[in-house]
Amino acid sequence: MCTYQTEKLNLTGSGKGAQGWFCLTDASVYFDHPVHASAEHTLNLDFLNPALGPTARVAVELDRKSALALSDAIRAILDATEIPT
Amino acid sequence: MKDDIRAETIRIAGSGQDQIEAYLAQPLDAGRYGGVVVIHHMPGYDEWSKEVTRKFATHGYLAICPNLYFREAPGASSDDAAATVRALGGVPDERLVGDVGGARNHLISLLSSNGKVGTIGYCSGGRQSFLAACSLPLEAAVICYGAFIVGNPPEGAPVKMTSLVHLAEQLGCPVLGLFGAEDQHPSPEQTAELGKVLADHGKDFEFHTYPGAGHAFFATDRPSFRPEAAKEGWEEIWEFLGRRLAG
How many domains does chain A have? Predict the structure, then answer.
């Protein structure tokens, strides 16, 4: 994992990990070597709750094209369903 | 059989006398053997790192791989542990030296030790192998594509590691460096710069850079695996360690 470029953010929501659902508080976004995906580098998303320990993690590894498509899809659906706050 | 081994998970005293997990592999045949501390890559204390540790034992070395992420993630899977440590900025250098020193001491304490120990590290472990060689009494150190021995991580990177060039004068043992020509961390230019620094200090080192290989070309479980480079690299490792750690 050697590009070392990482974006970290706080967020609010829930994720389902190996132990079931848990509250999310943090996320890491980085483009680096994957653990499982068959590519040299992938866009990796870690949805986390560090207070619950290392296993409170939902991990996703996407190739660049898929990551961009996901990003566009998120933006499109949020734009189409915008609710005034 | 000469390659019969015993492999097991143990606890050793690491930095600050903390009890940390480690994977120990050793030949079954009676004899005196050199020791190798395997410093795992940034993805952690994983299945591949244990395979490498066993490989050293089958080649006649006492081999130990300390779990450098044990404190942050005891009992967690290697990928969860690596994600946690990555988010925290990596392993502090001072702690790394203590953990590798503890692993070295454990090897020397074994009745089958010949008293000689070297290190090998991959990826971030390559940098840490160099750090250990500048900080601990060792007979040999192997660096496999270690980044940021020369130069610092890009701005905004979560890892806190910094260049180790200022320690080069303290390097206390011969070094074997194995690199990929396509790698950018470290780049061939950075490898050349490190070679110049070591030469200026009169250090004993040899570097090999393999064309067509990038980062992590030894990692058989990743698309970055390059069989030809890995094969040649392993031959260099056996030759180098055979000279430094024998009898």
Answer: 1
- Comparing alpha-carbon positions, the chain A residue that sits nearest to B69 is A54
Handedness of CA B148, B151, B154, B156 (dihedral sign): positive
Sheet holding A6-17, edge to edge: A6-17, A20-32, A42-48, A57-62
Q: Which two tokens stand for residue A39?
A: 């590519």
Indicate yes or no: CB of B215 within 8 angstroms of CB of A46. Answer: no
Dihedral of CA atoms A59, A62, A67, A70 in degrees, nearest 10, equals: -60
Residue B84: closest C-alpha in chain A? A54
pLDDT in tens, A20-52: 999 999 999 999 889 999 888 999 999 999 999
The ipTM is: 0.82
Contacts of B152 in chain A (CB under 8 A): none
Unique residue bearing structure tokens 């010949």: B114
Q: Let me know if residue A13 belongs to a domain.
A: yes
Do A5 and B154 count as a contact with CB atoms less than 8 A apart? yes
Half-sphere exposure of B113 (CA within 13 A, CB side): 19
Residue-wise pLDDT for B193-205, tens only, equals 999 999 999 999 9
Range of the domain at B236: 5-245
Range of the domain at A58: 6-80
Q: A4, B157: Cβ pair inside 8 Å?
A: yes
pTM: 0.92
Q: Is residue A1 part of a domain?
A: no
Could you write out the DSSP letters of every residue in A20-33? EEEEEEEEEEEEE-
